[in-house]
């Protein structure tokens, strides 16, 4: 299965770990970066932000990657940006599943799961949960009992329990740094 991660203009260790684990399992990974020129929480300029708004291009790139799943790792400062892109993706392909993980969904899962453009949220660590999710989506029957994940199904929310934290982090593969370095080469210097 192809999984497309959507990210702002910075490296994400969480995405790198998930990509590495999923590649190990034989899945294909894409990364689409929104440069957010003049439109970040740290530097915002309304006029220039609109002029350099690349969100339509980002949405097109996500759809063109032909993913089976789109994933966002969301900090609170980027929540509205991620929702906006998720809405745009859903307008182009309503059936495409979108998962939000990271600090914001973990902190306020009840708020995030209510969003129309979010189908699944990951609460807490995603390494094991994400592998199970992709396996489920790749199979003939969906598994809605994956720990750390909440799902929308038939107008209701399925809230699964949290699994224990990974104790042996050495079992994780090295993060896939090339995923970001290939698109943001200045990070590798």
Brief synopsis:
The protein has 189 residues and is α/β, with parallel strands linked by helices. 36% of the residues lie in helices and 17% in strands.
Structure description:
- With 189 residues, this protein is of the alpha/beta class.
- The chain has a single domain, classed as Response regulator (Rossmann fold), CATH 3.40.50.2300.
- Helix content is 36%, strand content 17%.
- It is built from eight helices and seven strands, in the order βαβααβαβααβαββα.
- It has a seven-stranded mixed sheet with strand order 2-1-3-4-5-6-7, with helices on both faces.
- Helix 4 links the parallel strand 3 and strand 4.
- The longest helix is centred in the middle third of the chain and has 14 residues.
- The chain is globular and about 45 Å long.
- 34% of the residues are buried.
- The mean pLDDT is 91.
- One of its GO terms (molecular function) is iron-sulfur cluster binding.
- This is B12-binding domain-containing protein.
- It comes from Candidatus Shapirobacteria bacterium CG10_big_fil_rev_8_21_14_0_10_48_15.
- It holds the Pfam family B12-binding.
- Its cofactor is [4Fe-4S] cluster.
Give the arrangement of secondary structure elements.
Blueprint: E1 2-7, H1 13-24, E2 28-33, H2 46-51, H3 55-64, E3 69-73, H4 79-92, E4 98-101, H5 103-107, H6 109-113, E5 120-122, H7 127-138, E6 149-153, E7 156-159, H8 178-181
Parallel strand pairs: 1-2, 1-3, 3-4, 4-5
Antiparallel strand pairs: 5-6, 6-7
Helix pairs in contact: 1-7, 3-4
Task: Name the descriptors.
7-stranded mixed beta sheet, 189 residues, 36% helix, 8 helices, single chain, globular, 17% strand, Rossmann fold, alpha/beta
């Amino acid at each position: 299965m192809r999984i497309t991660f959507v990210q702002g203009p910075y490296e994400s260790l969480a995405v790198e770990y998930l990509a590495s684990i999923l590649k190990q399992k034989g899945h294909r990974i894409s990364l689409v970066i929104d440069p957010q020129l003049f439109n970040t929480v740290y530097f915002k300029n309304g006029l220039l932000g609109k002029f350099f708004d690349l969100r339509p291009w980002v949405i097109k790139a996500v759809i063109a990657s032909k993913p089976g799943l789109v994933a966002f790792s969301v900090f609170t400062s980027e929540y509205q940006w991620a929702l906006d892109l998720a809405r745009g993706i859903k307008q182009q392909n309503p059936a495409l599943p979108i998962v939000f993980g990271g600090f914001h969904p973990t902190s306020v899962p009840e708020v995030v799961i209510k969003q129309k453009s979010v189908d699944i949220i990951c609460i807490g660590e995603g390494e094991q949960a994400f592998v199970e999710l992709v396996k489920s989506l790749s199979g003939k029957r969906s598994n809605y009992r994956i720990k750390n994940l909440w799902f929308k199904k038939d107008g209701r929310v399925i809230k699964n329990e949290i699994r224990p934290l990974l104790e042996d982090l050495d079992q994780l593969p090295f993060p896939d740094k090339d995923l970001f370095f290939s698109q943001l080469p200045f990070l590798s210097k």
